[in-house]
Inverse folding.
């Protein structure tokens, strides 16, 4: 059986798990990283020399790391013609948003994680969170403008490009103080919330942290 190494609330693990949920194949998830440790375990490092999560492992010993690569692999192998469009240009139109999300859209996430959760209470800074949000806003402006004429990032239906974009959008929508209005993004997010796999692997996985943020 296919295995995913990584804790269920890991920023990048969430992408792989939501993807698997949409595809609907069986897999085993192994708690790893964060509070579970294991990142420097020699055997794990042989699977993933970076020591990070997620790592995909198949029954024949094939391993793959980097969440974008994992999502692309899963969609190509198990969801060709659905999450992975068969048409090359349609696929590229979806694929570009995966890199865009990792390089640009998700830029706020490290500061949010640090100043909401990781740092000691005395070291946390609301100003740092607000600054990260302000710097990220132009990227969400771009996404919002694109969604004016598109239901999803790749066009009329959910594709692999939505996996990273939609995953991090949840944190932006739920964790951003005084979040700026983006009407098209709101519609997109509401569509994602109707998907059972999104609820399970994105919303529920983030729920404890979301409650902490909204209660602070």
């Amino acid at each position: 059986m296919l295995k995913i190494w990584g804790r269920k609330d890991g920023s990048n693990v969430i992408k792989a798990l939501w993807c698997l949920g949409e595809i609907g194949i069986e897999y085993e998830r192994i708690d790893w990283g964060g509070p579970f440790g294991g990142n420097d375990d020699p055997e794990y490092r042989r699977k993933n020399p970076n020591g990070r999560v997620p790592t995909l492992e198949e029954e024949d010993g094939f391993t793959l790391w980097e969440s974008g690569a994992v999502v692309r692999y899963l969609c190509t192998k198990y969801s060709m013609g659905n999450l992975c469009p068969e048409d090359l240009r349609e696929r590229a139109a979806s694929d570009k948003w995966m890199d865009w999300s990792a390089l640009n859209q998700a830029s706020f996430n490290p500061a949010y994680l640090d100043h909401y959760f990781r740092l000691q209470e005395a070291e946390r800074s609301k100003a740092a969170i607000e600054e990260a949000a302000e710097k990220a806003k132009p990227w969400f402006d771009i996404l919002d403008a694109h969604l004016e004429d598109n239901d999803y990032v790749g066009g009329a239906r959910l594709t692999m490009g939505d996996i990273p974009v939609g995953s991090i959008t949840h944190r932006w929508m739920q964790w951003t103080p005084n979040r700026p209005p983006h009407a098209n993004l709101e519609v997109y997010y509401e569509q994602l919330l109707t998907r059972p796999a999104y609820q399970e692997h994105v919303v529920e996985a983030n729920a404890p942290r979301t409650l902490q943020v909204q209660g602070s």
User: Anything to note?
Assistant: The two ends are 41 Å apart (CA to CA).
